[in-house]
């Protein structure tokens, strides 16, 4: 079963942002208005001269060894320096990515009463609503989420799989199967980029946990005051993020203290390193803080897949990546315990990963 909190919580009333938008309020409700330090400085966002790296997956397959090595090197740089990259020529047919966008959008456009048949209970992460809200005082994101555990079957909450649109379940199954294979392939290339055996993660992860989250960000009359999604790193091993066609530019990653936008590329998928790979690589490949911002006139859809080890797997830095020059930075723990820790804390940058950190020894 998916981990849930074991403490009582009172989240107060959470406005549905699509419904709020319909009423065209003259003022944004205070619960959405961020403190000054958190507000996005939208005017300051100029297209970055160095966008996140683009990796051509067809060049990593290995039919030409020299070409493969060169591209593995590019992947290594992307993981070391960015923690985010976009993959093109990933082999997933455009009809698969188009179909998931269509059913996700159709779901979000249903009347509220229909969507509320699949509620995300306070403190849980599956269903329709806002995840990671634990108190009445917490600021809310300008976002509606619909999240479902997909694999293994024991994490599925079948009651939350919607009957409308009619082809939702079948479409998510097809999409998830393709994305699962993509995650396996990418993890193989990541292990090669670390000079490790190609199947090291596949063997370690057991039957990997896979969850899908669809995020819908309606336009917001004051995008300068709100956040679409609070800054966070993902708890997964890797995450695959599909930015909806025609959506506003909204994903930003924190690089050298600046928020850098991720420009959508048609048919590309965004991949990011999660906390679990940061721990396994002893910090060589780091998870990167990211957030989403909103747009005054345009909406945005993203479809996100979290791919992580099975809950019973023990995680800790891999022996090959720890030595005198790279002392062990993280403790060993059970991934199920980390998942529970992750989903029972609000999104706060990279704070969740404190769970695993070993304080560096200071010399006296
Ligand atoms: C809203 O969900 C998340 O952000 C999230 C949770 C994913 C999950 C589900 C929707 C169903 C049950 C499994 C799981 C907890 C993975 C983020 O997932 C990250 C956090 C951890 C830890 C992880 O493995 O993926
Ligand atoms: O919508 C986005 O681009 C960001 C989504 C995200 O980071 C997440 O769901 O974890
Ligand atoms: Fe994320």
TrEMBL record:
GO terms for molecular function: metal ion binding; oxidoreductase activity. Signal peptide: none annotated. Residues 208-309 form the Fe2OG dioxygenase domain. Keywords: Iron, Metal-binding, Oxidoreductase. Belongs to the iron/ascorbate-dependent oxidoreductase family. This is Fe2OG dioxygenase domain-containing protein. The keyword Oxidoreductase applies. InterPro entries: DIOX_N, IPNS-like_FE2OG_OXY, IPNS-like_sf, Oxoglu/Fe-dep_dioxygenase_dom, Plant_2OG-oxidoreductases. It comes from the Eukaryota.
């Amino acid at each position: 079963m998916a981990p849930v909190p074991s403490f009582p919580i009172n989240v107060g009333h959470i406005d549905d942002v699509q419904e709020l938008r319909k009423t065209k309020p003259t003022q944004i409700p205070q619960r959405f208005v961020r403190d000054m330090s958190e507000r996005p400085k939208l005017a300051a966002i100029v297209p970055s001269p160095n966008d996140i790296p683009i990796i051509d997956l067809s060049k990593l397959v290995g039919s030409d060894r020299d070409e493969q090595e060169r591209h593995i090197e590019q992947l290594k740089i992307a993981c070391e320096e960015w923690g985010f990259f976009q993959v093109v020529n990933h082999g997933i047919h455009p009809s698969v990515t188009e179909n998931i966008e269509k059913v996700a959008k159709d779901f979000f456009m249903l009347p509220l009463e229909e969507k509320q048949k699949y509620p995300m209970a306070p403190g849980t992460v599956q269903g329709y609503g806002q995840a990671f809200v634990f108190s009445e005082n917490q600021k809310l994101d300008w976002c509606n989420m619909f999240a479902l555990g997909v694999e293994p079957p024991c994490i599925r909450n079948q009651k939350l799989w919607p009957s409308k649109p009619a082809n939702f379940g079948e479409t998510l199954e097809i999409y998830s199967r393709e994305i699962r294979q993509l995650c396996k392939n990418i993890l193989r290339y990541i292990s090669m980029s670390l000079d490790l055996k190609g199947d090291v993660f596949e063997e370690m992860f057991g039957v990997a946990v896979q969850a899908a989250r669809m995020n819908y960000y309606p336009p917001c009359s004051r995008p300068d005051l709100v956040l679409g999604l609070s800054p966070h790193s993902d708890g997964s091993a890797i995450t695959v993020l599909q930015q909806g066609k025609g959506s506003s530019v909204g994903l930003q990653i924190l690089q050298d203290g600046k928020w850098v936008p991720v420009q959508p590329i048609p048919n590309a998928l965004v991949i990011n390193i999660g906390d679990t790979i940061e721990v396994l690589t002893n910090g060589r490949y780091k998870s990167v803080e990211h957030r989403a911002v909103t747009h005054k006139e345009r909406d945005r859809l993203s479809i996100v897949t979290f791919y992580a080890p099975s809950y019973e797997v023990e995680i800790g830095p891999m022996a090959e990546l720890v030595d005198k020059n790279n002392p062990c930075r993280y403790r060993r723990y059970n991934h199920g315990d980390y998942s529970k820790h992750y989903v029972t804390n609000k999104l706060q940058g990279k704070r969740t990963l404190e769970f695993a950190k070993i304080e560096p020894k200071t010399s006296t």
